[in-house]
Amino acid sequence: MPEKKMVNINDMPKWFHAIMILAPIAGLLLITTQLDNDFYFIYKTGEYIVHHGFPTTDFLSMHSTMSIIPQQWLTGVVFYYLYSLLGRWGVIGFIYLCYALVCVIIHKLVMMICDNLFIANIISFCSDLLLAVMFEKTRPQAITYVIIITELYLLERFVQKKKIIYLCFIPLLSVLQINFHCSMWIMLFVFALPFAAAAIPVKIGKIRQEPCCSFLKLLICGVITFAAGFLNPYGIKAITYLATSFGYSEINVLVKEMAKTSLGDAVGVLFFVILALTAIITLCLKKKNYSVRYVLLFGGTALMALMHHKSMAYFYIGGLSAFSYMLKDIQVSLPLKESKEPPRSEKTRRPLLIITLIVALCALAAMILIPPANNASHDRYLRNMYTDLDAIIEILDREDKNHIILYTGFNEGQYLEFYDYHPYIDGRAELFLKDNNGEFDYLKEYNDMKNGKIYYKDFVNKYHFTHLIVDSVSLHLMNDLKHDDDYELVYESDTENLFILKD
Question: β-pairing, 207-209 with 202-204?
Fold first, then answer.
């Protein structure tokens, strides 16, 4: 019997390669089509800038004298034009475009790292779908992912080709990042650190490291990239924005994505499963491939992911891409047709191949079943909240807006701002810190009031609220207002409630 001819998967026709490369774009079907809650203040920021220029004091909340830096100003302008011209699907379509770019660049990056089409398809498929179901939303982070992946691609290209032209584009990424999402601008330098470390020659006893590229060229690029960050409307304040917005307990409590990764939720469990599987695969490898920059990139992004939920995205972008280097020697062959020629001498490492396939199947199953369920629950909550807020806005619209002094919570404020109301607080958490607004720590006051550390009557009288929108989770304030003869409950639901000051 003639044996089947075995053809290496890397030698398959171009159409086969194209299908495999574009397969992760199917993740578009898993991206939520619900506008993120932050969209509303981002949109209003863009609207204000288009019509009035760059603000220095707040124009959205009731605290009109506090200083602000719209850290996502360019994203706001893009969202404003897209929503104005094409509605909700214009903004979602832009997120789809960002995700498609992520898919293509991650695949090219992984192929450059491991030069193995099979592994590149497995890694990029998992990375892309993890991003799609958990992190691709109508927020500036979608643009940040494209910028960070592009930087990794350019740095890796520079290391392999030794052509300085690839470094020349990184300062441009700096300009884009500082204007689209300035709080994440520092990530450009964080992701460059593994390459810088690998470019330093080391000779300590038997430990020797040959530099992967010119450290001097990387340093010069870093200096120019840093200088390029000043090309923004707010100068040094935008560059130092993260320093005055990071590490506050109030933000960590209110913003769930800033919480530490743990086994207490499905997303955390998924991350630890993936981390454990990468360790198991590494132990099973007979030939282990190491490179300083990939080890640092994997370890550094894994540590970031452990610190904050939102940083998992950077592990799926950089960490899994770096992990592909460990797997670069795995070869997969496919039987094509009857042939008298003997099969190629290269044999697939079956145990490792089976483990790799199991990883892909487990990750795919988890991605399909767990995160979308979480997203569906969150989207359902938002839809219920917006339905109640729409009913409340109908009540508010019967009165003169100029005479309304409105209290809302952290999640409701931006939606009211979208309809030109000026609430006590909104989702721009860092702007309500005194270190950023130069006026008062409204975020701490808000947290203390919600937790009953501040007497509600002192708080209400301080601002003379005429209307209060209170979510059903704020039990202290809800119960106090229900027993306050000065206020009347005029709208009640499972999510939102409206109290109005009696005449």
Answer: antiparallel
